[in-house]
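Record 1 of the preview.
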Amino acid sequence: MKTGDSIYKEYHTYLRLERSLSENSVLAYEQDLSKLRVYLEERGIDPVQASYADLQDFVYSFFGANSNARSQSRILSGIHSFYRFLLYHNHIETDPSELIDMPKKEMHLPDVLTVEEINAIIAQIDLSGSEGHRNRAIIEMLYGSGLRVSELTDLKLSNMYREEGYMLIQGKGSKQRLVPISPEAEKWFRFWLEDRAHLDVKPEFADIAFLNHYGRQLTRAMIFTIIKRLAAAAGIHKTVSPHTLRHSFATHLLQNGADLRIIQQLLGHESITTTEIYTHVDIQDLRKAILQFHPANRT
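->
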């Protein structure tokens, strides 16, 4: 029976190869698991021999000093992942973490832009400049297709099927999905390709869709900067980021009658629970409407 370090090494291989997680995701899982690992090692408990009581003691001792529900949830998620791995690979017969409940997360409703605010942002783009068409195409892709910023920066020309109106997106955990390209995004992307043809594109970035003026791949930080500057110029005082456009994409779809399962697929959410946050955003809008327009709430 494998124990100790060999189990943790096997878990690393499982995350990297079987689950095909990125190095950053693997590191995050192992950092969260390290809290339990240190706790068990200090008490001379082998992870394979750990009982429900051992894990419960860890939860009480560690979480007593760390009350943030989000951190607790993340660490427990890592523990559940580790013990599911041990169970599926026949290192244990029962999962001692199965009965440990996840803490309830505080509901965080993201900032959402109105259509008018998005139009105001677009209006700030200088189309006469060398990067105008590129920036317009970026906004149209983030808002029109709901891409994550990393999905946008990693987008490859070879994965764009523009005649069919689709893009093959490489999402979280190396999961792929097909996402429609809106006619407006296609229009501005075509203009950007004409500008892109005049750049001195470095060979290693020849297949990357969005480049800077040096012919290199745009960074996430640069996308953030572009959007923050445009929002500030438009006089928008909300916290605006690339993710705000993704949130707005999903919220506006839901408000206009799109099915939640379709939105889940477009966003690349593994669980429908993640997508359900947009129903809460919509409910908040309904509440505001009642407070503003119902005669019982008027003075």
